[in-house]
Amino acid sequence: MNQENGVRFIAPQQSTPTKDMDVFYNPVMKTNRDISVAIISMFKPKRIADPLAGCGIRGIRMKLALPPAEVWINDRNPKAFALAQKNAKLNHADVHVTCADASEFLKRGFDYVDIDPFGSPNPFLDSAVRAVRSKGILALTATDTAPLSGTYPRACQRKYWATPCKNWMMHETGIRILIRKAQLIGAQYDKALIPIYCHATEHYFRTYLQCFRGKSKVDAVLALHEHIDFSKGIRTSSQGIGPLWTGKLFDPRVAQHVAKQCPMLMTETIAQEACIEAIGFYSTHQIAKGRKQALPPMEHILTTLRKKNQASRTHFSYEGIRTTATRVQVQAAMRKPIPRRASPK
């Protein structure tokens, strides 16, 4: 018997889950599930869908956290379906459990759709986008981070229609590429998908997109698909990384709520960086290495930058700084460390 946040459930015992398992459960994804529960506690969707439920833990946790919601959990594997039913009964969770192909299951409409596959969310994007209602939330997980992060650029071009980068910015650009792909699918149905929260954790990327209907809203989203040359810190129409989403990654209100519901270093850092409207971030390690200088304490750099600009750490890299300052200003802030007081003799 397993437990997660007070929920008891039966699940296969395997140290490293694989796509060949009959029933899938990954304990490493607990943070993923914690944040999804925090998100629904804020938006309170009436109708929730988990099309790739596995043993059903995510959907059951959502139902127990938001009892008025109508929660549907589905898996096409009969063994997973049977286990999800058992786990629902074990926790007295009044959820709807079905056994169908995810695309068929998603022919219904939902206020919250959670796509958490093993690998890319690509095969489920079209169905998921069509299923999410206006002002609803589409949550996406991508565990194929190697293509999105630049290790396999050709695979990223085939699957996500964009060119990734392999540098300090790779996780943020990977999430921005993932977001753009979902937005392009949404555009076909006059649905504008706006990011409200995202994170890069362990081996996966995660984003939450709110759906708004209307051609003008879609056009506004598409206008923010651009190429970026991060080495120069400028936007460009024909060179650099991309194309990718260049709008906001976070809604600060959502980020603050998640940090309160799931207090940890990552969520608290996101709550800080969510308030800064900046595309990308600076790597203090990369700058120090390029200038052949010692790396000053991070707090000194942040304190110096905050005198004239907004600045915080970024969860994408704890050596990184998200700031409204220019690269020249960041370099200047790294020149003189705070003098240390002499220790008493």
Break the fold down into its secondary structure elements and pairings:
Blueprint: E1 2-4, E2 7-9, H1 30-43, E3 47-50, H2 57-65, E4 70-74, H3 78-90, E5 96-98, H4 102-105, E6 110-115, H5 122-131, E7 132-142, H6 145-148, H7 153-160, H8 170-187, E8 191-201, E9 204-213, H9 215-222, E10 225-229, E11 234-236, E12 241-245, H10 252-261, H11 265-273, E13 282-283, H12 284-291, H13 298-305, E14 311-314, E15 317-323, H14 327-333
Helix pairs in contact: 1-2, 1-10, 8-9, 10-11
Can you walk through the features of this model?
This protein has 2 domains: 266 residues, Rossmann fold, CATH 3.40.50.150; 52 residues, 2-Layer Sandwich (Phenylalanyl-tRNA Synthetase, Chain B, domain 1). Helix content is 38%, strand content 24%. It has a 7-stranded mixed β-sheet with strand order 5-4-3-6-7-9-8, with helices on both faces. The chain has a 3-stranded antiparallel β-sheet with strand order 11-10-12. Strands 13-15-14 form a 3-stranded antiparallel β-sheet. Helix 1 crosses helix 10 and helix 10 runs antiparallel to helix 11. The longest helix has 18 residues.
